[in-house]
Specification:
250 residues; alpha/beta; Carbamate kinase; single chain; globular; two-stranded antiparallel ribbon
């Protein structure tokens, strides 16, 4: 990073960042659909980040609209693979909403999808995506990997590897990784740092197994943090001690 913000407490620590934003980032907890205020809150943070020179790619989920697993009990009517494709399409709806929110703030963006939807988005092409990032555009990545039975967490890990991200930010509604579910056990311990080995050994719910393995193999650190607190995405990119950092060593 350059010294333009050398006296800024939010001076970025990372040059290229992959942000995994779940469907809950687009609405209120426990409610479905897209909330404009919540979407704008994320967009404002993203704008401030790129203004500091960070190259930002955002992988979006779609759980606020539809989860493929919700049809698992009705497999005789809607096949599991079809349900997963429906979930991928839901991520595109969120991607379109985020794109317009960002552009209402005068941010230059590109929406790329793993499933071709040429009337509304570019196809995901690694070299093209990289070029957009280098030009300071925020790239929104929707459609997962384009394949069923692959989570958006794994899609984020794969895109992070492909794009040479410095860190993968896993934005959640909790403030890190706990030894147990903090909503069920108020005495659960929050970890500040973990190794990939600890996550895999203790089966901690950071991301799915394939995503963790991909990040471990690429030596791509993961930061799990609460993005609902305004400014936390910026703090995460500045390297502040928030959330839980998962890396090769503690």
């Amino acid at each position: 990073m350059d010294d333009t913000f050398s006296n800024d407490p939010l001076k970025p620590k990372y040059k290229r960042v992959l942000l995994k934003l779940s469907g809950e980032g687009f609405g209120h907890a426990g409610k479905s659909g897209i909330n404009i205020d919540e979407t704008l809150s994320v967009a404002r943070q993203a704008k401030r980040i790129v203004q500091r020179g960070v190259q930002l790619a955002i992988v979006v989920g779609g759980g606020n609209i539809l989860r493929g697993t919700q049809f698992s009990a009705g497999g005789e009517v809607i096949k599991e693979a079809t349900a997963h494709y429906m979930g991928m399409v839901a991520t595109v709806l969120n991607g379109l909403a985020l794109q317009d929110a960002l552009e209402s703030l005068k941010c230059e963006t590109r929406l790329q999808t793993a499933i071709r939807m040429d009337n509304v988005a570019e196809p995901y092409i690694r070299r093209r995506c990289t070029r957009h990032l280098e030009k300071g555009r925020i790239v929104i990545l929707a459609g997962g990997t384009g394949n069923p039975f692959v989570t958006t967490d794994t899609a984020a890990a794969l895109r992070g590897r492909e794009l040479g991200a410095d860190i993968l930010l896993k934005a959640t509604k909790v403030d890190g990784v706990y030894s147990e579910d903090p909503e069920r056990n108020p005495h659960a311990v929050r970890y500040e740092k973990l190794t990939f080995g600890q996550v895999l050994r203790d089966n901690l719910r950071v991301m799915d197994l394939e995503a963790i393995t991909q990040c471990r193999d690429a030596k791509l650190p993961i930061l799990v943090f609460n993005f609902k607190q305004d400014g936390n995405i910026e703090r995460a990119i500045a390297g502040h001690a928030i959330g839980t950092l998962v890396n090769e060593t503690v």
